[in-house]
Design a protein that fits this description.
The structure is a homodimer of 658-residue chains. Chain A has helices at residues 15-26, 39-51, 65-76, 79-82, 88-115, 120-125, 129-137, 149-160, 169-192, 204-227, 238-247, 254-276, 281-302, 334-363, 369-384, 395-403, 410-426, 435-447, 452-461, 463-478, 481-501, 546-567, 587-603, 614-622, 639-652; strands at residues 145-146, 392-393, 505-510, 517-519, 532-537, 574-578, 606-610, 635-636. With 658 residues, chain A is mainly alpha-helical. Chains A, B: The chain crosses the membrane at residues 118-136, 171-193, 205-232, 252-269, 281-302, 373-396, 408-430, 436-459, 466-494.
Chain lengths: 658, 658
């Protein structure tokens, strides 16, 4: 019985077993180069994987021309796909959910428009046209479209840096529409150019921190309405807002505060009930409209507008007026408008896509991210010329839509029609609606964005992600919304670069009785194989880490030698690099192998590579010095085979015994 | 005979073999969680791997205090390590090499100072003090220290953006010294803060493109001296320089051109001879000094300075005057100076470290990058207060040093003393040295930076790296030196991010007769295992790629199902993810597994993980839903074991046959 089969000698009792391993491992399998492909083929494959990972056109393959045309039209207008099969039964579901989200959309529309420093009516306009566009172009069945809190906040605060919404309301409105145009253009381009993955750079941790920070900023802004303050700071940060609030205590109006607290408690209670029982979703869905009606009646009955309670005031009746003549493509504010469009575009896209994906996963259908981006983008471009500001799929509203049983995008149409009716006939009713109730509606809506359990979960799973989240949160609260976001994204990317720059290398040992090799520091029963140092490199090798890897591996070898000196074991003969996890190398990586091989030769060790992947083999072959690695005894398919085969050569080679 | 052992049924002839595999694979090995470590321990280990990968203090461990003090002093001043063993034999070698590099350093020092728009004498000052400092602090035995061409070019061109070296020479000199101070401070800080890996972001491809571009820019600047033009553009780009040259043809001086061509041919010939035979290194090493002497004599003999040949003019005798009173830490140019210090600091550091590592590898000793950075940084800080500008280890001079047989840093001392003698006694001799010969010396020196074979090699190995190289090259030539560099670094980092965003997933198949599983598209003899889809994920899973991975894996499954439909094979039951290459996950990665498991359940497939690494197991465990992955039949140590064990359950489970 030869004891060298798997490099350990503990199991001599189990002869049969050993015999087997020997047969299995002594048959050495060759590492072969991958099949040849031209540079063009490789480029094509790489581009496809990068930009068309979901292969969106595969259903077109091998179809007749007519079928292709139909599929093409369905691809561009998903309504053609589900429209022909639409039934009365589906419509019944959609009409219920459409009316439910309309009851939520009307007060929220007015509130969010005020958050964006825009006239309240623009919020209603934005709940009329975009849902219709989305119903035709969108592929999600649950998304409820309209203005959202965070995009409204960012749009309002960024534009206010240059133009005052009170002193120059027309210019502010023009800038808002132009911003919407650029946001839509940017969103549609991302989708069209298949660059949708850019939104993936907003990690979950970043978003949770960002959302919580933004919710607090939004809520702080509502202190103006909730306390009835007339002179309020124009800044957004925690410190200036609180300073402003407590410097103007003389402006606090007890009537407003009383009303605000009552409605806030009512709304939060309704929210709590719906969260406890999903079936009672309509309680929180209907509560805002109930509040608006009730508060309007109260103001009207008591003439409270004369007792320190500010009201919305007269709203113009009628549908969206055209606004393409209000888009400003020149002038000194263009830079700001483009930047604001970019930030609001990305943020609202992130929300819309995330919402779409969440509900698609729940109902087990797929949403094409890039196609969805085009739909949202076109919706905003159309919106910008019909007096709408930035809209997207809102999380809270889509959840209500889903719970209310929406089956298709027709629920958006129903909501849109309801808003249309409101715009045409019901606008005078809002004249006495107090601003304080809008503030309460906003606070209730954004409070759900603060997700403490998710934050705790992140703390438990990944401390670095928690750091990212905290930076986003604190950055948003203390610096500014967009800078907080930028800092968090920067830190997230820095982590990735750090992982690349400092890849893990682990020492492998043999799990006794097998030819499996695993991390010695993880699997305590794994054993070192005398004479071998087996290292696994767990990252692509490139310019950012080749110098580190060389240094780190040399340290592994030195430490190994020092330990062997202590134990007076047999001296090291082979350094085996397990390459299964090295998915790519670049020219620096190739140099790394050349240099490292030379360094090993100088030390008198043999360098053996195990299971290099296709790209690595190719690149090593193309470099001149790779010939070294084509010798059969320096390239193996598994660690087990390498150890078995090389152990046997030690015995036949007297020189190695010195 | 059970045919389910390794999932393939081709080798029924080899019964013994099969029997073995069965025994080997049916014994299932558990995936165990890694040993527990506290967050603090993990943070400590991570920080150590990030900032102290080479564990520089390990020699201190377990030593008595006195020994520790000695080791500490030797660590800070490497001269204490090799100084006591210094012998006459070593000194003989060092004196020869020291004199050789001095003969190169004197003309190069004068030339490079002119390239930096500084007085020629500053170049000699910079070859006197810094080598002495390096000899005490540096750990490389071959580095020859002094001013270098590219750092000189960048310093001169960046400072000239704000201050004219001809109109305001004193201010320009002050800014140059201050820049040197900041460069040194920056270099020393990088070393001290263990952030040396920052220079790794200049990949080989970037450097080759950048060096070639810079060499061309430097050579173009020499057209002024070589053609004898007096009115020369102050811009650096290819286009403005050539325009300037051909707009001033009337200023061309035939005497200068004739002299320039003669010496250029001579120098290039000398370079060619030395490149052919390494033993004749002294030909190219001595040629510049020979040219300077010869040309000075010619000018002196023919009074050529009156015939259109411009000469250096009078140079002040004496050693470096102190210059700490010339450092400007306030004023309007501070921003420029800091920026220039940063760029020249990084660039000269990159050259110095690369040279040190190259020769250390040749002679098989190690250079501690971070320590070396501190040495170079302190050398520049000292230099900035003794009238020196930015210096580092120069490649060409170090190569000459190495070839001339330098044994220790004493060769730098010998060079320094020779320069001192020159400064004290020989300065009047340079009065008649023509500028044209300095131009020829610079061109000959930088021409070696254009490395066509390396560029071809990069083209052969990696097309993307070639793109990076071309961008660096074209950017330097057509835009500016620092922007070209920034573009190339940006593209390099973009590639890394792209690799992370679009990680490879490959389908594995069984290599018949083994329990080895490899990429089906690489190993043509690998076979699919009916009922299983085995995918290997080849990257860490994080926020940037979790959405992509889900989409891509779902497409693998769909394609697989479509193919199975065509072939009417047994339907898919298990999706196995081989995780050996997933070195890390973050909270988005954890969510990916939760979502993906749910998606698989909806489709009726079982998700099985194979060999998740320590960090992945830990994080999955810490998330609440990970319980799913603790079931014994969803976690295996090898693909072979998973397939063998799950194949047997298929038979015992009637539900799966439907």
């Amino acid at each position: 019985m030869e004891p060298n089969t798997s490099g350990n000698m503990q199991h001599d009792d189990d002869d049969d077993h050993h015999q087997c391993l020997e047969i299995a491992t002594m048959e050495v399998h060759k590492v072969v180069p991958p099949p040849r492909r031209s540079t063009f083929e490789k480029l094509k494959a790489r581009l496809k994987e990068t930009f068309f990972p979901d292969d969106p056109l595969r259903q077109f393959k091998g179809q007749p021309v007519k079928k292709k045309l139909i599929l093409g039209a369905q691809y561009i207008f998903p309504i053609l796909e589900w429209g022909p099969n639409y039934s009365l039964k589906l419509f019944k579901s959609d009409i219920v959910s459409g009316l439910t989200i309309a009851s939520l959309a009307i007060p929220q529309g007015i509130s969010y428009a005020k958050l964006a420093n825009l006239p309240a009516i623009v919020g209603l306009y934005s709940s009329f046209v975009p849902p219709l566009v989305y119903a035709v172009l969108g592929s999600s069945r649950d998304l409820a479209v309209g203005p959202v809190s965070i995009a409204s906040l960012i749009l309002g605060s960024m534009l206010r840096q240059e133009v005052s919404p009170t002193k120059d309301p027309l210019l502010f409105l023009q800038l808002a529409f132009t911003t919407t145009f650029f946001a839509g253009l940017f969103q549609a381009s991302l989708g069209f150019l298949r660059l949708g993955f850019i939104i993936d750079f907003l990690s979950k941790a970043t978003l949770i921190g960002f959302m919580a920070g933004a919710a607090i900023i939004v809520s702080l802004q509502q202190l103006k309405a909730l306390l009835g303050i007339t002179h309020f700071t124009k800044q957004m940060g925690l410190v200036p807002v609180l300073t402003s609030v407590f410097h103007n205590t003389n402006e606090w109006s007890w009537q407003t505060i009383l009303m605000g607290v009552c409605f806030l408690v009512f709304l939060l209670l309704a929210r709590h009930i719906s969260m406890r029982r999903a079936k009672l979703f309509w309680v929180s869905a209907g509560a805002p409209l109930a509040c608006v009606i009730l508060s309007t009646l109260v103001v009207f009955a008591f003439k409270a507008q004369h007792h320190g309670i500010s009201v919305i005031g007269k709203l113009q009746e009628g549908l969206n007026p055209p606004s393409w003549n209000m888009l400003l493509f020149r002038g000194s504010h263009l830079g700001l408008v483009v930047k604001t469009g970019l930030v609001t575009g990305i943020i609202s896209l992130t929300e819309g896509i995330a919402v779409g994906r969440t509900f698609a996963a729940l109902k087990n259908y797929q949403v094409d991210g890039n196609k969805e981006m085009m739909a949202i983008g076109i919706m905003n471009i159309v919106g910008s010329s019909t007096s709408c500001y930035v809209t997207t799929g809102a999380f809270s509203r889509s959840a209500v839509n889903h719970n209310a049983g929406a089956k298709t995008a027709v629920s958006n149409v129903v909501m849109s029609v309801t808003v249309m009716v409101t715009l045409l006939f019901l606008m005078p009713l809002f004249q006495y609606t107090p601003n304080v109730v809008l503030g309460a509606i906003i606070v209730t809506a954004v409070i759900g964005l603060i997700d403490i359990p998710a934050a705790y979960q992140i703390w438990k799973i990944d401390k670095y992600d928690f750091l990212v989240m905290s930076c986003a949160f604190l950055g948003v609260i203390f610096i500014s919304v967009q800078e907080g976001l930028a800092i968090a994204v920067g830190i997230s990317i820095f982590k990735i670069l750090l992982q690349i720059t400092r890849p893990k290398t682990v020492m492998l040992g043999n799990i006794p009785g097998t030819d499996i090799y695993r991390n010695l520091h993880h699997y305590k029963d794994a054993m070192r194989v005398p004479g071998f140092l087996i290292l696994s490199i767990e990252a692509p090798i490139n310019f950012a880490n080749s110098a580190y890897l060389k240094e780190r591996i040399l340290r592994w070898i030195e430490e190994h030698e020092a330990e062997e000196d202590l134990k007076k074991q047999s001296s090291l003969g082979f350094v085996i690099l397990e390459m299964s996890a090295v998915s790519a190398i670049d020219t620096n990586g190739v140099s790394f192998f050349q240099d490292f091989r030379k360094a090993m030769e100088k030390k008198g060790f043999e360098l053996v590579l195990v299971n290099p992947l296709a790209e690595v083999i190719e690149k090593l072959q193309r470099s001149d010095v790779a010939g070294d690695f084509r010798r059969p005894d320096s390239l193996y398919l598994t660690v087990g085979e390498a150890v078995a085969s090389l152990s046997s050569t030690i015995k036949t080679r007297p020189s190695n015994l010195v």
